[in-house]
């Protein structure tokens, strides 16, 4: 199907992630119907059905599970799960492709290596449990579905990177865990996956996160170095660079290589730096320097 004939319908409580996706689809030439949460009562099944039908949607992207601070927490309520079901039913009624955005928290926080699409979920938090329920609702209600999982998402002006930059500029003390293996994903790269899915559906479960692996310390050090080469991070007392912890955020891998992958996390961070005004602004000269975990001064 020609992309100019495809209408993506985007709804949910995805906040800044939802905005990134909508922007990427518009730039790719799609006629996008992006509905803010305030304009659509997700608890009203008829309203959801009318909105999707009125848009003549071919793809319905549900951002209720998008990893954007505050939104995932809200998904733990029964009301939001009803909204997920209503969007999936509306898509099925219109013979549209449902895409539910989820994340690695469905695998819990027990380290066991990178998780692929066929690995059984085992959530250990209310958020992970809610996301898994939402995934299963979408799959049950609409046979034409994609469950798209990623890792922590960030943008040039929001999320983890923006938080770290702000704390460096403020001269704050930053404690970082050294060991958990992880790979945050640059949101515009994730949005590009949605562009490809709109053009070429890939049904079932799909993992797409930044390529490569790093520890939380590696990532934080890469971010702070962009702002201030003299800044030093401090390891949390429980952290060790040599011992794998009992718990760690899940890292995603894929067994579906025929679909485009997301670039390495360092590439995402480099692009983020080009977009971020704060990363181009030098840190305050009187910023407090912290010590390395072993007590070595900067």
Protein architecture, described:
The chain is α/β, with parallel strands linked by helices and about 300 residues long. About 35% of the residues lie in helices and about 15% in strands. The strands form 5 sheets. Strands 2-1-3-4-5-10 form a 6-stranded parallel sheet, sandwiched between helices. The protein has a two-stranded parallel ribbon with strand order 6-9. α1 links the parallel β1 and β2 (about 35). The longest helix is centred in the N-terminal third of the chain and has 16 residues, at about 80-95. It is globular, with a radius of gyration of 20 Å.
Features:
298 residues, alpha/beta, Rossmann fold, 6-stranded parallel beta sheet, 10 helices, 14 strands, 15% strand, globular, disordered C terminus
Task: Quickly describe the structure.
The chain has helices at 15-27, 45-54, 71-74, 78-93, 126-141, 160-169, 187-199, 216-227, 265-275, 277-280, and strands at 8-11, 33-34, 59-62, 97-103, 145-150, 153-154, 175-176, 181-182, 185-186, 204-207, 210-211, 214-215, 234-235, 262-264.
Mean pLDDT figure: 82
**Strand numbers in spatial order across the main sheet:** 2-1-3-4-5-10
**CATH top level of the domain at 3-156 and 187-209 and 250-262?**
Alpha Beta
The CATH architecture category of the domain at 3-156 and 187-209 and 250-262 equals 3-Layer(aba) Sandwich
Tell me the overall shape.
globular
Number of helices: 10
**Could you describe the largest sheet, including whether it forms a barrel?**
6 strands, parallel
% residues in beta strands = 5-15%
Q: What oligomeric state do the depicted chains represent? A: single chain
Alpha-carbon distance between the two ends: 57 Å
The total of beta strands comes to 14
CATH superfamily (homologous) name of the domain at 3-156 and 187-209 and 250-262: NAD(P)-binding Rossmann-like Domain
Order of helices and strands: EHEHEHHEHEEHEEEHEEEHEEHH
Rg result: 20 Å
Structural class: alpha/beta
The residue ranges in which pLDDT falls below 50 over 5 or more consecutive positions are 240-246, 283-298
Give the % helix: 25-40%
The CATH topology of the domain at 3-156 and 187-209 and 250-262 comes to Rossmann fold
């Amino acid at each position: 199907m020609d992309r100019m004939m495809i209408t993506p319908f985007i709804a949910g409580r995805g906040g800044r992630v939802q905005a990134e996706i909508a922007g990427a689809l518009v730039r790719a030439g799609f006629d996008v119907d992006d509905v803010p949460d305030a304009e659509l009562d997700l608890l009203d099944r008829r309203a959801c059905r009318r909105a999707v039908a009125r848009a003549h949607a071919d793809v319905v992207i549900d951002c209720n599970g998008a990893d954007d601070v505050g939104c995932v927490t809200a998904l733990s309520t029964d009301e939001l799960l009803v909204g997920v079901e209503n969007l999936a039913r509306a898509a099925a009624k219109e013979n549209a492709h449902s895409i539910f955005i989820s994340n690695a928290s469905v695998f819990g926080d027990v380290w066991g290596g990178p998780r692929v699409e066929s690995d059984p979920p085992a959530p250990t938090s209310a958020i992970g449990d809610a996301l898994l329920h939402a995934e299963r609702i979408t799959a049950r209600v609409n046979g034409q579905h994609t469950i798209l999982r990623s890792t922590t998402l960030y943008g040039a002006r929001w999320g983890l990177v923006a938080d770290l930059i702000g704390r460096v500029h403020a001269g704050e003390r930053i404690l970082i865990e050294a060991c958990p293996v992880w790979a945050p994903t640059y949101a515009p790269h994730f949005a590009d996956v949605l562009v490809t899915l709109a053009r070429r559906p890939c049904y079932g479960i799909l993992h797409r996160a930044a390529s490569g692996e790093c520890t939380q310390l590696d990532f934080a050090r890469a971010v702070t170095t962009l702002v201030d080469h003299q800044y030093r991070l401090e390891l949390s007392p429980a952290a060790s660079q040599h011992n794998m912890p009992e718990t760690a955020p899940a890292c995603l891998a894929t067994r579906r290589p025929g679909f485009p992958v997301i670039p390495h996390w360092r590439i995402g961070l480099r692009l983020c730096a080009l977009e971020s005004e704060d990363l181009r602004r030098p840190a305050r000269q009187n910023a407090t320097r912290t010590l390395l975990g072993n007590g070595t001064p900067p």
